[in-house]
Amino acid sequence: MQDLKSKILLIYTGGTIGMEVNSEDGSLMPVSLENLVNHIPELSRLECELDSYSFKDPVDSSEADWEFWNDIAKVIEENYEAYDGFVVLHGTDTMAYTASALSIMLENLTKPIVITGSQLPMGMLRTDGRENLISSLEIASLKDQHGHSILQEVAIYFEYSLYRGNRCHKFSTEHFDAIISPNYPPLAEAGVKIHWNLSALQRKVDFKNLRIHYKWKSDIAIIKFFPGISLEQLTYSLNQPNTSVFVLETFGSGNIPMRNDIIDLIKEKVSEGKCFINVSQCRKGNVDQKTYASGMKLSEIGVISAEDMTFEAVVVKTMHLLGKELSVEGFAREFQVEYAGELSI
Length: 345
Ligand code: ASP
Prior knowledge:
The protein has nine helices and 18 strands. It has helices at about 35, 65-80, 95-105, 130-140, 230-240, 260-270, 295-300, 310-325, 330-335; strands spanning about 5-15, 20, 30, 50-60, 85-90, 105, 115, 155-160, 160-165, 170, 180, 190, 195, 210, 220-225, 245-250, 275-280, 305.
């Protein structure tokens, strides 16, 4: 039994959960945190001490960029010692990117960061926001027999499941279970009780000081392959100035057409010091540059495999590593290192 109540900070950044219908044009617009919590009087019955912090201008999460991630991390940094856990209310559209970013930024994290939101605004009768918020707060409050938080990483809670944040992807605009974790099992499931999948959790044995990495760089371009993509299109994309990393969205387990002109073009760019990452258009499973001749060719010319990382984690990790101003070799090496459970080794 816990004798001391956990102290949780609720951070409101925006998203559908806090939106209301704009009477002028009928669109959904983010409103204040007060408005949102007024819809859930049950919050006062929770077994935790709850404080809240609202972004001055809550936004639709499609507005998010690395400054927005830094703003959330700053609030966590300033309140880290005073609270046992954090629940972040966030739009679902880019939730997986923010979760990936926080997981990589917050080195030595030993407290729970649970990100949640909803598909329907809190003010609507059938909202999924009430359950998502209440369960997220409960999960962030739970401690083990030694008084340590059970969750010690960045997670997303959505529709009865808790997932590792950097393994998530938004896959549905209409179902309540909008978030999936295709390559990693849920960390917990909320039924009558919270059922933890203890072997899937990251548990820290040594408690070091929290270190936050605020530097990012977005010199990155995404190239999605499709049947019939032309050399001209590829050449145009690969000649973009100020781009040092190209993420190739390939077919199946990491394949592209076996055409000499395409391979030679990538090879030429690699020799100019550009980095290439191979991420599959398939969400489940991993890139395997050893199975097919095309994947093997890419590996041979220096294309880095994203293995089973999500597209979102790949983009965020790349931006983080670019912020470190590494050499090309350093980037390639670091990209293949697991930082916060985003990659199965
Ligand atoms: N557009 C909204 C957002 O990402 C969608 C949502 O919250 O579900 O902020």
